[in-house]
Design goal:
The chain is of the alpha+beta class. It has four domains: about 45 residues; about 80 residues, conserved putative lor/sdh protein from methanococcus maripaludis s2 fold, CATH 2.40.420.20; about 100 residues, Efflux pump adaptor protein, beta barrel domain (Elongation Factor Tu (Ef-tu), domain 3, Beta Barrel), CATH 2.40.30; about 140 residues, PGBD-like superfamily/PGBD (Muramoyl-pentapeptide Carboxypeptidase, domain 1, Orthogonal Bundle), CATH 1.10.101.10. The protein contains three helices and 22 strands. The strands form three sheets. It has a six-stranded antiparallel beta barrel. The chain has a five-stranded mixed β-sheet with strand order 8-7-6-4-10. Strands 3-11-9-5 form a four-stranded antiparallel β-sheet, with no helix packed on it. Strand 15 and strand 16 form a beta hairpin. The two termini are about 70 Å apart.
């Protein structure tokens, strides 16, 4: 009986040992599977691609704020007195031969020229303003006009005919106030008086601009070194479109603005910078809008570059790239230069255009 009990106890112990071993094996398998799954999941979040070392120019740009607007803003004033009986609407375009306003129902007509109208022009007068008048009358279709600066009898005849067409007294003399000269057609930006107002010579009538859009930048004087005449710049429009232009004017007088309500507080000094767009039609959907302007901060010409993400930080300091060949991969230490537009300038042993490097991605 004692021997039977001992045998039963031995069998029970053996079963417990087997069960324990099975449990340990199951746990180990579960751990291995979990670890393998975790490694697979982690590795699946990292991929890699390759890129070739390229040779190009890099430009690092400083982004400043600007305003897209129409160029050559100016105020046009009356050169005769009376009651305003007609006035061009805001946003309207006025071209050669069309009236800007009427005073006492007599029109003031736009003509093109660089010299403003400053006197009455009549028989015997000479000057650039006379030549401008004759050129405009010829463009408007009037005959018998010579290409010189003299106001002749033929000029008087053409003027008389023009005056009759405009509803002006046919005097053959262009009285001051009948013509306004501007370099080109204008766009009315705003009315500076109202129909029915009584005005005198010199009274502001219309605020006008050219038809061409430009970008105005109030550049902080601490960034003045970033602006260079004829320098190419990038302009980002409100919808994200990037266009190009160049700096055509840099002011020489700084303006200081203090913080409102804080006497003696911080002030900001700025200078005006004008950017002329290479293709103004690309911004034609806006009359005025905030834009970003990329000014050249630094540049590197004809350098070797790779994507910035190709750089690997070395434990001992510095950077390397992983170079891929047909048969091997090697880390190659590199010197870095300019960082710009997602690229970095590099140099190192064996680094040349076309060298393939690894670019880790997520």
């Amino acid at each position: 009986m004692a021997d039977a009990e001992k045998a039963g106890t031995t069998i029970t112990r053996t079963r417990l040992i087997i069960i324990g071993v099975v449990i340990v094996v199951v746990v180990l398998v579960a751990v291995i599977i979990a670890a393998t799954s975790n490694d697979a999941e982690q590795s699946s979040t990292f991929t890699e691609s390759t890129a070739e070392v390229s040779q190009q120019d890099l430009v690092d740009r400083e982004i400043v704020s600007g305003t897209l607007q129409f160029a050559e803003a100016q105020d046009l004033v009356a050169q005769s007195g009376g009651t305003v009986t007609s006035l061009r609407d805001d946003g309207s375009k006025v071209v050669r031969g069309k009236s800007l306003w009427r005073i006492n129902q007599r029109p003031t007509v736009l003509m093109y020229g660089s010299v403003p109208a400053y006197r009455t022009m009549s028989l015997g007068d000479r000057g650039t303003d006379v030549k401008q008048l004759k050129t405009n009358l010829k463009k408007l279709g009037y005959k018998g006009l010579s290409n010189d600066k003299s106001f002749t009898s033929a000029t008087a005849d053409a003027v008389s005919e023009w005056q009759g067409d405009e509803g002006l007294p046919r005097s053959g003399t262009v009285v001051l106030g009948q013509v306004i000269f501007t370099p080109d057609s204008v766009r009315v930006a705003g009315q500076l008086t109202r129909v029915g107002s009584l005005v005198r010579p010199g009274a502001p009538m219309l605020s006008v601009t050219s038809q061409v859009r430009e970008v105005a930048v109030d550049l902080n004087t601490s960034d003045q070194s970033l602006a260079t005449l004829k320098e190419k710049v990038d302009v980002t429009l409100p919808d994200g479109t990037e266009i190009t232009g160049k700096i055509t004017a840099i002011g020489t007088v700084a303006t200081s603005d203090s913080v409102p309500g804080q006497p003696g507080g911080d002030t900001t000094s700025t200078i005006p910078v004008t950017v002329t767009l290479d293709r103004p039609s690309q911004a034609k959907q806006w009359d005025s809008a905030p834009v970003d302007v990329g000014l050249q901060a630094s540049s590197a010409t004809n350098v070797l570059t790779v994507p910035i993400s190709a750089l690997l930080a070395l434990a001992e300091g510095g950077y390397a790239v992983e170079v891929v060949t047909d048969s091997d991969r090697n880390l190659v230490a590199v010197e870095t230069g300019l960082f710009a537009d997602g690229q970095v300038e590099i140099s190192g042993s064996g680094i040349e255009p076309g060298t393939t490097v690894v670019v880790p991605t997520r």
